[in-house]
Amino acid sequence: MLPAVFRLLWIAALACLVAGCHSDAEFPSRPVTLICPWSAGGGTDRLARQVAVLLEGELGVPVNVVNATGGGGVTGHTRGAVASPDGYTLTIGTVELNMLHHRGLSAVRPADFEPLGLLNQDSAAIFVRADSNWMSLADLEQSIAAAQRPLKASGTAAGGIWHVAMIGWLAMRDLPTDKVTWISINGAAPSLQELMAEGIDLVSCSLPEAKPLLEAGEIRCLGVMSPQRLPASPEIPTFAEQGIDWSLGSWRGLLYPKGVPPDRLATMRTAVRNVSRSDEFTRFMQQSGFHISLAEPDVFTELMDSTDRRFGETLSTPVFAEANRAAVGAWFFPGLLGVLALLVVVSGFKSIGSADSGGVARKGPIIWVVVGVLAFVWLSPVVGYLIATGILLFGLMFAFRAGRRTAAVVTLVAPPLLYQIFSGFLGVPLPWGWLGW
């Protein structure tokens, strides 16, 4: 009779043979995930799905697109940056990656990725319904200036590239930015649907994203924020032609998380290069109205770095800072917790009454609450919400003499759960600190 350990080894070996164990020496040997930070049906999603189809033929394995939306690009880009660097997860990054950290929404930045290749650059444009009275940018500007109530606009989440493009245009023309209220919608496709439903008055996005409705005659493009007319839409006038010296656009490219093994990085870069230079990709881009803008990883890196510097300067100006101001900041939750703790302390001391022996004994935990909350508020922006919450909870468990097992469970489970509730579901920005949270 074989010892138990040998029986287990024999069963594991037999299972590997039956399952046909794949050696990781052969890459890729299983499906690849392509993360898209934006909603299904939008320009980035359409491009991601076409690239996925072409990559499947190049790599010989399925490539599955996952729409990780939320936070104006925070969710998808963060998920891509922290993905396992095994080569099986890549991200279709967008220009918002150059903006999120400048806006204090995420610690993720271009340096957290390994570029695979630039695919596309598109300029912003302004769209209205076809039945509107606005026939030109001048008409729309007059309405904005004279509006008794703010017009409603969208195209992406608040603070995204299309929002910044619109704010830049208004600022360039000395139009009051509060005359246009930006409705935060996660992507151009749902924004255009809202435009057709008359829920908003105008949309700022790229021409390819609006092409189906534009060709159907449902919407009208008043101008594109490009120095020259676009080859795919030569009939659309530019802002420059209408006397407005303002241009801005987006980029889209494929990215790996940092740390992917060099051989796998080289394999994926070759696959991306072959796909982006294929006839099928060119036909798709031309038919969809996307502007093809290909660049090797080193040039792509330079583009991201220069764009990052530009947005660092642009988003710090007063007009953008005011337009991108969040309803609640990263200090909202720590401050709220501090106020609640203060109320608990005040009510606790009132209930204690005179300093008898029992009262003194009960004051200890309350003082620990005060010290813990103050430490939490001070530590949060330094070490991050996750670590600071863990320290606070562990300290309070200790102060109230909770069992070790209970303290350990609460300390390990509660901080990430609270983070998901407040940041993931409620959209409250929290200090990220050392871990990027």
Automatic annotation (TrEMBL):
User: Which of UniProt's keywords are assigned here?
Assistant: Membrane, Receptor, Signal, Transmembrane, Transmembrane helix
For this protein, the record's PROSITE patterns field holds: PROKAR_LIPOPROTEIN (PS51257)
Coiled-coil region? none
Q: Check the record and name the SUPFAM superfamilies matching this protein.
A: Periplasmic binding protein-like II
The keyword Transmembrane helix belongs to this UniProt entry's keyword annotation: yes
Transmembrane residue ranges? 328-348, 360-379, 409-432
Instruction: Give the protein's recorded name.
Output: Tripartite tricarboxylate transporter family receptor
- Outline the extent of the DUF1468 domain: 324-431
- CDD domains listed in its UniProt record: PBP2_Bug_TTT (cd07012)
Q: Which family does it belong to?
A: Belongs to the UPF0065 (bug) family.
User: Where in the sequence is the signal peptide annotated?
Assistant: 1-24
